[in-house]
Amino acid sequence: MLKYLIIQLCDTAPSFCHYGNGRKGSKLISADDLHAAVMFAMKENLCVQAVWPDYEIPGELKNELMATDHVNIAPLSITSDAQISIAAEVKDLNDAPDGSTVVIRLSSEDIERDFDEIESALRRLDRLNVVLTDIEHMTEAGFEKYGRLLDRFAETIAKEYKRGHGVQFNLLTDRLLLDEMNNCNAGDESITVAPDGKFYICPAFYLDGSEPVGDLKNGLDVRNRQLYRLNHAPICRICDAWQCRRCVWLNKKSTLEVNTPGREQCVVSHIERNASRKLLEQIRLSGEFMPEKEISELHYVDPFEQLVNSNRQNMKKTLLFIIAIIAIAMCGYAQLPNGFNKNYTLSGIYGADGEEIVDNGAAPQSRLIVVTTNFGFVQSSAMLTMNYGPVGQTTLSFDGYAGFQNGWYVYVQDMGIAGQNYLLISRDGMTLRYVSTWNGGNYMEYEAY
């Protein structure tokens, strides 16, 4: 659900996020478009965030903004009264009033080089947001260096908290204050009106020449809007690096998907998360602090690799299980070849005790033929044809396979209330036993020929 309307007042309005803005020509939003944007925000009950250029805008535009509550995001070079100030360079932090909120875009190398100046600003400001400009280019060595820098900043912030200055530094303290994801959410909770009077997912999409998603006259038209929502981000929705920016523009740039961050963005966010955990422990050395808050220890920084490794382990277990089942099917349930068939001739009649008997009046058939059928890896059925020869034929179907028992393939024919008949075939297929329900437990044994 939309909550914020960002209004970029001019093409040259500085960036406050991951995107850069290299435009030089000034193109102000028209008074009519600004009026329509403010009215849109009022009707939709949206909070307006006005992004100012580095020069004073005409009074007509100021008056339009005054018609609704709004937050000014402006360069320090033109005003220090904005609710959120943008510093172009580290040296500009000296111009920010004590207790103010400042955003600055820096590379990891800038942070290392200007560490002392940034540390000094943290001692004066109420909040400092540092936006990394080189996330997508960071290497393993860069990740390690970034982690060490955050550990150094954590020492500074812990000291500030000890002396009663609860400074907020987005890279470290945001995770302490959150209980759920709090990301960019452009396209879902916020939308941007650009100087051309059209809607864009965020200022970055306007500045890089992306297609608009509607205009002030005809309204919003965000296609596949669900993709901008957290519940359609399969990895992010189960992640607890809640402070992650999850910048949808950077997502699109890195992975071509607005709901899927690149590896670098994930790793950086987890480095920050783990550093926040260390900060929490350091602050608690000075006394009780946020006793209800716990950040569990993680032994990885790339959730996707963790997910892949977990899936690999699960796949390996599944594969071993399948192999075991196949082995059981092929060994414990040893089987004759599909379509196995042989001719047999009577070799003797035996009692249940295995003793041979001459004749019990069962009129045994002198010759038989058997054909077996398999289904996949499991025996299925056998057909027994009796009286094979010129006298005639009787075919019995043994539809039940009872497994391989004591060296015999065992097939069962259900005779209902009369009982069951059994057909047993030896492992090598050379011997057959036929047990009839009417034969009192005696069986006839046949040999293949």
Structure description:
By secondary structure, the chain is α/β, with parallel strands linked by helices. The chain has ten helices and 21 strands. 28% of the residues lie in helices and 24% in strands. Strands 12, 13, 14, 15, 16, 17, 18, 19, 20 and 21 form a ten-stranded antiparallel β-sheet that branches. A hairpin with a 5-residue loop joins β12 and β13 (356-357).
Helix content: 25-40%
Number of helices: 10
Annotation, overall tally of beta strands: 21
Globular, elongated, flat, extended or rod-shaped: what is the shape? elongated
The termini sit apart by 81 Å
Structural class: alpha/beta
Q: Give the strand content.
A: 15-25%
Radius of gyration: 39 Å
Unreliable sequence segments = 328-334
**What's the main sheet like?**
10 strands, antiparallel
Task: Return the average pLDDT rounded to an integer.
Answer: 86
Please summarize what this structure is:
This protein is 28% helix and 24% strand. It is of the alpha/beta class. Helix 1 (31-43) runs parallel beside helix 2 and helix 5 (140-162) runs parallel beside helix 9.
